[in-house]
Amino acid sequence: MRIDSSISAVVTGGASGLGLATVQALRAAGVKVAIFDLNPETGEKVAAETGSVFCPCDVLSDESVDAAFAQARKANGQERVLVSCAGGGNAIPTARRDKNTGEINIFPSDKFEWVLKLNTVGTFRCITRAAAGMMTLDPVDGERGVLINTASAAATDGQMGQAAYSAAKAAIVGMTLTIARDLSREGIRVNTIQPGIFDTPAMARAPQQMKDALGAMVPFPPRLGRADEYASLALEMIRNTYFNGETVRLDGAIRMQPR
């Protein structure tokens, strides 16, 4: 698909990190972009800086997602691109014995469920709305749209305490080919990016010593990933019409250790 001012895009989690870098790359190419994000202050600021439209959106809510898509389409027209970057996680062992008291605690089921709802269901909720909208469009060069999801290295080599996050991201990997097959007759492609350790706002809160140590774990290049490198791959997935049903690791060849 050509990337220019003739198309519009939606980026969830677009006010920071990987989503923000994708918004910037799409806008640099002339694409009309709608930013879906929970944070109105950051979202409005980024929208003003990038010439995008900010649409308040909670991917946990059908009503919020429907309203955000309606707002985006009113401003920019029907999107042909959806990049889903919204997500998050927690770090809780499956079961843990307290070193001091010997008390055994388990991973609360509601906290496990929340991570799956945020990452897997939230991504799927946006996919269904975008796909339905794209299906109303006439094909351009044989295709109607492109959906890009965000998984994680944790999907295949999650560390201790990442049971929920690993499950949620593995589900995104697992549904990629199926959704690509579901939408193939409509000319809509689906791919997933599986990032390793990236230098995002969440990582920025970590001490520099920790970030240096994490970067040194990467075989090559021995550093944290940059958000613009994620965006670069996202744009290639949009451009390359034969890129479909794939999950691509973007991690400098790292394979995460248990902890």
UniProtKB/TrEMBL annotation:
Gene3D superfamilies linked to this entry: NAD(P)-binding Rossmann-like Domain
Keywords recorded for this protein, A-Z: Oxidoreductase
Protein's recorded name: NAD(P)-dependent dehydrogenase (Short-subunit alcohol dehydrogenase family)
Entry-linked InterPro entries: NAD(P)-bd_dom_sf, Sc_DH/Rdtase_CS, SDR_fam
A Pfam family per the record: adh_short
GO function terms (MF aspect): oxidoreductase activity
Keyword Oxidoreductase: yes
Similarity-based family: Belongs to the short-chain dehydrogenases/reductases (SDR) family.
PANTHER family in the record: 17-BETA-HYDROXYSTEROID DEHYDROGENASE 14-RELATED (PTHR43658:SF8), SHORT-CHAIN DEHYDROGENASE/REDUCTASE (PTHR43658)
